[in-house]
Structures are given as structure tokens and as C-alpha cells.
From TrEMBL:
Source species of the chain: Pedobacter kyungheensis
Record protein name field: Uncharacterized protein
High-level lineage: Bacteria, Pseudomonadati, Bacteroidota, Sphingobacteriia, Sphingobacteriales
Amino acid sequence: MKTLLIIFFFFANTTCTESTTVYICNSNGAKKYHLKENCKGLSTCQHKILKMTLEKAKADGKTLCGWED
Ligand SMILES: [Zn+2]
């Protein structure tokens, strides 16, 4: 039982600390984040492309780009 608890906490902790890098276009109207730096949606970006964690992108109110599969 104790072992099961340790395994549970290990996985819960892994999920919480997992950080995915995403890309956003640094323009005022940008509301999307991208999983790939060479995404179609980013190719039209006229501004700087910023790298950040998925958590931060979501905290900023960004949603996944429609081009991602
Ligand atoms: Zn995209």
C-alpha cells in the first residue's frame, strides 16, 4: 500500500512539473501558441517568435493554434 502511494505521488509530481516548450508570435493580437517552431501559423508572424512554457502560454490566455495536429 505504501509503495502504491509513493508511485502515485511520483506520477502526480511528474505531471505537475512537466514543462512543454511552445512558441508564440510576439504581436499584440496573438492569442495562439504553437507546438512547432516551423508551424504554418507562425510563418506569417511579422514579429519576434518567443519561446515559453505551455503553462505560461495558457496563463496568458493563449489557445492552441488551429494548424497543429
Ligand atoms: Zn501553430
